[in-house]
Amino acid sequence: MHDPIAALADQLADAGRSAVGLGLVVASGGNLSARLPGRDAFLITAAGTRLDRLEPDDFAVLGLDGSVLEGNPRPSSEWRLHRRAYQVRPDVNAIVHLHPQTAVVLDALGHSIRMLTLDDVSYLREVRRVPFYPNGSDELADAAAEASIGCDVIILANHGCSTLGDTVEMAHRRALLLELAAQNTFRCLQLGDLDTTFPVGATLSVHQ
User: Fold this and answer.
1) How confident is the prediction along the chain (208 residues), in pLDDT tens digits per residue?
2) SS (H, E, C) the chain
3) Whether the predicted model's global pTM rises above the 0.85 cut
4) 4-190 in CATH: which number?
5) What residue segments make up the domains of the chain, in order of their start?
């Protein structure tokens, strides 16, 4: 019989290995989650887990009320960030929270991350930010949830990012593309360019 928890845990573990391998998070930073189909609940990585070493016991199942329903009894300290996003975005089925350094540094220096490539405008579309709030706090969760209404890519100032998607793969892809867009923005700044963005009015053929 198909086990949706095991299947989503495998997808999240793959995303975690990729994120660590690409340097988007280190040690026990970051956390990943996925909404459980047909339930008011989501699967989330446990506190202190390393995203490149996730095992079945490294996940907790939480209800949208924040209660631990099964699995690891110690969910990530950022469970509120995920819960609030699922509450305000019923279309979202996965959330990736990482610490992409180029994106965080550019934001801290007051630079907006530019949409420069077709992938940027197709998958990211828009990047919003919220000011710094303590990690794991209700303030951070509420601010990020509000920013996510109509937007799938949120920078958490001096902290990291939260990217949303209808699948684990899409949420993860947006996190990767956010950092790539930040790196391209940094290259433009190095060359003294302050204005270049994707051509206004260009015809898009969105590829998924």
Assistant:
1) 479 999 999 999 999 999 999 999 999 999 999 999 999 999 999 999 999 999 999 999 999 999 999 999 999 999 999 999 999 999 999 999 999 999 999 999 999 999 999 999 999 999 999 999 999 999 999 999 999 999 999 999 999 999 999 999 999 999 999 999 999 999 999 999 999 999 977 655 555 4
2) CCCHHHHHHHHHHHHHHHHHHCCCCCCCCCEEEEECCCCCEEEEEECCCCCCCCCHHHEEEEECCCCEEEECCCECCCHHHHHHHHHHCCCCCEEEEECCHHHHHHHHCCCCCCCCCHHHHHHHCCCEEECCCCCCCHHHHHHHHHHCCCCCEEEECCCEEEEEECCHHHHHHHHHHHHHHHHHHHHHHHCCCCCCCCCCCCCCCCCC
3) yes
4) 3.40.225.10
5) 4-190
